[in-house]
User: Fold these one by one.
Assistant:
Number 1:
Amino acid sequence: MNAIVTVVGRDRVGIIAAICNRLAGHNVNILDISQTILQGSFTMVMAVDLSAASAPFGELSASLAELGKEMGLSIRIQREEIFNAMHTI
């Protein structure tokens, strides 16, 4: 199963590293990544493969949300089909 991870918050050093480390710790493979910084605001969207994940989706979601809270970011994960349905016009 694939999913989309979104990250939004104030830019600072180490955001990508921390999120990638957390995903790697759960054996989640990053398929694609896009990030930008606009006037100090950091935004990142990642496509990830959960087929070999070591934790259930809910646990992974909670782990990313906890990391976001620690870092002052909004980090969310959605199943790819739900993300796509929400962003189809």
Number 2:
Amino acid sequence: MCIGVPMQVIEAGPCWAWCQGPGDPTQVDTRLLGEQRPGTWLLVFQGAAREVLSEDRARLVLDALAALSAAAAGEPFDHLFADLVGREPQLPEFLRKA
């Protein structure tokens, strides 16, 4: 399984960017997205940027990854899904009956 990790660009070149995510800064291949500005959030899979993210979306993905780690360690993780806790699930519009 390959999991995308949000990383923020701290320095960029034409085909690469130094990005900060969980852990140490990492050089990321940006050839699929083109040159990115510092501050941009990217979704990175195995060293290659595949998608530009908003900061809000990046935070949601980072929280979900933190929740996976917490669950694996047997720790509570509800606080990482504050936007979902206490809310009834909703079907997407295309699945709702007319």
Number 3:
Amino acid sequence: MTRRTPLIAAALLLGLVAAAALWVRHATQLVPVEPGPNVKHTAELVERGAYLARAGNCAACHTERGGAAYAGGKGIDTPFGTVYASNLTPDAETGIGRWNADDFWRALHHGQSRDGRLLYPAFPYPDYARVTRDDSDALHAFLMSLPPVREPNRTHTLRFPYDTQAALVAWRTLFFSPEPYRPDTTQPAEWNRGAYLTLGLGHCMACHAPRNALGATANEPDFSGGQIPMQGWYAPSLASPKEAGVQDWPLDEVVRLLRDGHGERGATMGPMAEVVAGSTSHLNEADLRAMGLYLQSLPVVEPPAPDTETAEPQALALGQRLYAAKCAQCHGENGVSSEPEFPSLVGHRTVTMASSANLVRVIIGGGFPPTTAGNPAPFGMPPFGQELSDAEIAALASYVRGAWGHMASRVLPLEVQKIR
């Protein structure tokens, strides 16, 4: 090695840093967008935008508990740190009061703020990129009609290097392409409407698709299920009738579940109950039927066969005793409920699917279907997490997953501890 070698290495390193800086600077320049039409914000357009905001469940993230609607501040926990939702009210200093419809379209379709900053995909612009310009303009009109709220945006608390624009440039290069929704000409208009809502504003893949180590989902429709980061809930596969697929349901029952959060074939709890309460329960019948039709058309993909290893006899005996004491009164001694308000557990998909996360989550924290017009007084399940240990919850879950002909795997106390 000569004396010049370290100098050459340093020069190369500086060159790489400079090239990376130029790459990031270029990637964060404002994406040129075709100017939209000069749309007048009529009452009809604002009303349509409000409907679309409910379809996208925008308030769920952009409204902090106890805060003003759409004023932001709510923390979204991710494996990389916490992202705080932004203020969407038309306040000129802290909200989007200075944004025009083109700025809003750029954020929705390209994931880029008015000042050029790349947005974090906790804001699901990979899904929202499918939203049409007309719908984007209606959403913008609705947000501009809200009372302005002066609420400064909170700084994200992400770990290095995820807190850098360079990391976002790399992520987008690998995983993001702003493709609009393209109707399938072989399908009827109703099916295409359902696909557009499900894949776009509904952003159903944000939960029901598996994510890689960097938090990205596939670009193509994928509803094979996935663990919801940081929440302890599993979003079951919509491609499998053994999990949450509705391919073999009557369409009216699919509509009822999306509208009311409860039906003869199941009920929503946890994150999906929040989606029904804040979004799908407010959609019109035509859109619900379109979404149901699309979901019914998803190709069936069988999930991996669950592990059938059973718990130790002692654990099963403990689980049986706990079931008789805590569960049988509502769910029946043999797992068959005599009351329509309480689900039977025999063959219940939450009990039998490969992931036991939702079963354990409900035993720990209880759960209620959402309160909706079609189900104004929902019956719920009380929590048992305060009175049962990890070992007891594991034993109870293992028992119901193995009783009455079920062949699902055992649950270990360590799994319960992780979900807690």
Number 4:
Amino acid sequence: MIVRIMGEGQVSLADEHFAELNELDDELLEEMESGDGEGFRRTLGALLDAVRRLGSPLPDDALEPSELILPAPDATLDEVRAMLSDDGLIPG
């Protein structure tokens, strides 16, 4: 799956890593619902770090359609809330 981190670029990520990412996504969703801004910032950073660590960056000139778009590291709680679906940022 191709994942885009807004403002950074794209990475190719194997489906086998989505269980780990979904755990972080669930935690992020809980923190957003409770208004835990500090927890939100920490978990968003952990989620994006996991995508970078587990994925393989695509070249900057690659124009692949992104199947998943994640917010920039400095995104606000309101900006991320606008990107959410019922499943959070990561479907499943």
